[in-house]
Write a structure and sequence with these properties.
The chain is α/β, with parallel strands linked by helices and 262 residues long. The protein has a single domain (34-45, 85-260), classed as P-loop containing nucleotide triphosphate hydrolases (Rossmann fold, 3-Layer(aba) Sandwich). The chain has 9 helices and 10 strands. The protein starts with a strand and ends with a helix.
Length: 262
């Protein structure tokens, strides 16, 4: 597999000086195309700061971040926005859906901001919702759906324009065990489709669903290992939920998640 992400000696320092806080302290790691990686750590470990760096939502104090061959470490806000649109689909714990819009309209909204024509926008949104098993919920509003269904809408919004990277921040944090299993199943299918999936979590049981686990503590990588291949195969074959049909993506652009939340 070719290298997609390379981070070299990355530091993020808040309040530089006598009372400085090193949220990230010399992080070095690489992630290849089509990896399924879990980054795990407790509150205050630095995992959320690392997620912001990986998602081009912030820039480091020092060090380098090479994403798909481009050094994004010192890019401007506008340049980072372009990178996010092109490379990354975000899935957040809180869903971030607009309460007054239907599932279809929620998925379409960022495509409107991107200037995608109406017909193409509708086709992309419908295809994304079908991918996550919500073909019968397209006209439902968030209040008419379960938490698991709302998170599936958020996933559809993230994948509508087929970004190569899926960055999922505690995607099961607000869900019951059955809904959590559904969401993790979808993430595994997206990985099988060829996406690079990066899962941020504090839950070791959730992290075990990934193929590679990076443990972070006090802003540093404590462990970085590949799970046993036999265990990975068992996870893939797990029958906790029915498989959801995921079709091949059609277009190659992504949603600007920050615009959704604006």
């Amino acid at each position: 597999m070719s290298q997609l992400i390379e981070i070299r000696d990355m530091c993020k320092i808040y309040n530089p000086g006598e009372n400085e806080v090193r949220a990230l302290d010399g992080i070095t790691l690489s992630i290849d195309n089509n990896e399924f990686v879990a980054i795990i750590g407790q509150s205050g470990s630095g995992k959320s700061t690392l997620m912001n760096m990986l998602g081009c939502l912030d820039v480091p104090t020092s060090g380098q971040y090479i994403l798909n061959g481009e050094d994004v470490s010192g890019m401007s806000d506008d340049e980072l926005s372009d990178i996010r649109n092109r490379e990354i689909g975000f899935i957040f714990q809180g869903f971030n859906l607009i309460a007054t819009l239907t599932a279809l309209e929620n998925v379409e909204l960022p495509l409107i901001y991107r200037g995608v024509p109406g017909k193409e926008r509708g086709e992309l949104s419908e295809t994304a919702l079908i991918k996550v098993g919500l073909e019968n919920r397209m006209e439902h509003k968030p209040s008419e759906m379960s938490g698991g269904q709302q998170q599936r809408v958020a996933i559809a919004r993230a994948i509508a324009q087929a970004p190569p990277i899926i960055l999922a921040d505690e995607p099961t944090g607000n869900l019951d065990s059955a809904s959590s299993a559904e969401i993790l199943n979808i993430l595994r299918q997206l990985h099988a489709e060829g996406r690079t999936v990066i899962l941020i979590t504090h839950d070791n049981e959730i992290a075990q669903k990934a193929d590679r686990i990076i443990k972070i503590r006090d802003g540093r990588i404590e462990q970085d290992y590949i799970r046993n291949a036999a265990v990975q195969e068992a996870v893939v074959q797990e029958a906790a939920v029915p498989e959801i049909n995921i079709q091949q993506p059609i277009f190659e652009e992504n949603v600007n998640t920050q615009e959704i939340n604006a």
